Amino acid sequence: MTLPLSLAIIGAGKIARDQHIPAIAGDDAFSLAAIVDPARPDLGVPAFASLADLLAHGPAIEAVAICTPPQVRTAIALEAIAAGLHVLLEKPPAATLSEVAAIEAAASPDRTVYATWHSRHAPMVAEARAWLAGRTIRGGRLIWREDAHRWHPGQHWLWQPGGLGVFDPTINAFSILTAITAAPWSIARSEFQIPAGLHAPISAQLEMRVAGAPVAADLHFHDDDTPEWTIVLETDGGTLTLRDGGATLSIDGGAARRREGHAEYPAVYAHFAALIASGRSEIDACPLRLVADAFLLAKIREVEAFAP
What we know:
Order of helices and strands: EHEEHEHEHEHEHHEEEEEEEHHE
Oligomer: single chain
Number of domains: 2
CATH architecture of the largest domain: 2-Layer Sandwich
Largest sheet: 9 strands, mixed
Strand order of the largest sheet: 14-13-12-11-7-10-9-8-15
Number of helices: 9
Helix content: 25-40%
Structural class: alpha/beta
């Protein structure tokens, strides 16, 4: 592998500009060679309306980071795999579990496909996993609240079929939960509140289970909520609390610990480079499976209209 690898970002929205472009700029393993977006924005590199246009007329690339809405990721991923490119997928990797399976089936043994879960790279996730090892979870709670207008302004796709609504941020919590415990997670009960005229929930209440233990989840995506990203797991050896999306950790209510100098997206790209160097792919659908189960079990109530 000759470094840096030339990489194109597909989908130049908020997450690409806020996280992917800075992470790539700080990583010696990659060089941003092009942008693919129908709007063809000026971001300092050549821009193309489609991947086909880039492949036909643009600079040579070796990898792509697909940052589009999930509803269109699968077709682009399959096109990129067919073109012999390494592929990084924003979360969730696709809109459905069947599409994830199609991507996995198409993956080439000599090219990397990496379905990212950036919150698994939050500073204290690895330490939480180490602390939980050998302990039995007795119960817990998950509180995930954020402002849709602040974090996803004008992103109407979030509220369409496949857009996930409140589960777009909450799938980050699911990615942490499924990373820090050995036992599998499941959904036992699900209630959704869906705004009039939209297709995805703005809030939800779940009863989750891990090794038979109940974990209550309270999820909100309203613009009047105080942000909170908290996981509390009660075990036979004490209580673990992860706050700020996995950035801080405390045990039994003690002082919060935080690992400084560790950012999620630089870690994502470092892992992508390591996967490419070792000739491996990583496609984990567990967080999306929990979302799908929540939708299958959901008791739905319509609530007042919400303007994205």
